[in-house]
Every structure is written in structure tokens, then in C-alpha cells.
Task: structure prediction
Amino acid sequence: MFEDRKRLFVDTLCWDLPVSDDCYEIDAFDGPAATYLVDHDERGDHLGSLRLLPSSRPHILGSLFPALCRDGVPIGDDTWEITRLCLPTRLGAAGRLAVRNRLISAMVDHALSAGISALTAVVAWDFLEQVRRMGWRCTALGEPTIIGGARLGAFRIDLDADTALRLAATGIYVPDTTPPPSARAAA
Result:
């Protein structure tokens, strides 16, 4: 997972992130509070992953990008941040889409079972429209802002009992998807 994160975020997207041992993208938010959802093949090879961070602890939006939130950063035990959605390019477009949908489905199931009612994220502003088209109840937290040459924004997704149905209607949610065995809190 950390090797694929390095290949995607550092090598391909050219983000200025810390790299360990020249091959692992691991940042200050990877730690005991993080929860990882990881999709893998039958050999255990990484296909895709995402990280969830509790907003009640240090997280990217609150620590690095609070200015993206017009009315303050949403914080609470029931609010978690989505970060590091990693879909390796080697999977091709169709493979990346299938893995993304499984990860989103697992994330929704996990969030609802864990009492998480809201998710936040920092994204390229143009991606926000794509997120909205997926069927989420999604609200921008402020106006887009140019940071480091990129037009960024933050959003909040509200989760409820109908979230899976709205996502299924757009082909995103895969019924009966549960977090893969490697979905876990960091040790």
C-alpha cells in the first residue's frame, strides 16, 4: 500500500510528500488513529486503498487546510476524514473503477456500522462535481482556493440509512460489500 501510494502521489502526481526508504509514502497522519480500507487480490497484492482519519485527532483538513472551511473545520467523534484514496494506474481504467467502487462500498458499510455520520475530504475542486454525481449528500465547506498551484476545496458528506441506496442508483455501491480482512486500525 505505501509503495503504491509513493508511486501514485509522489512519482505520478508530483506531490511534495515524505518518502521513507526511497519507496514508501508515509506521512505524520499514518499512525494508531488511522483506519485503512485495503482491497487486495488472492495473493494479497495491493489493488487499492484509502485511509480514514478521525477529525477529533490531527487530520489533513484540520491541520494543513483549515482555511478551506468557511465556517470552521467539522470536528466530532462521528466525523472522519477520507484521505489517500490510492488506485494504482497499473489496474487500467476499468480495474481502477471496480476497486474504487468496492472501497467506497466498504467505507460506507464501515462508517455506518462504526457510528460515523459525516466524512470530509480535501480535493482538487474539479473532483467535487464528480463526487456529487456519485449520489452523496455532499456540501462544499468553502470556496475553492489556489494552494501550491492547485485549485483545492473541502467537502462534507452526510451519511444516513439511504446513502447506500443513493450510491447504488448511480452504480457506485456494491451491495453486501464488507471491509476486506485488512481493513483495520493501525497498530
About this structure: The mean pLDDT is 91. Strands lie at 19-20, 24-25, 35-40, 46-54, 79-86, 118-124, 137-140, 145-147, 150-158, 184-185.
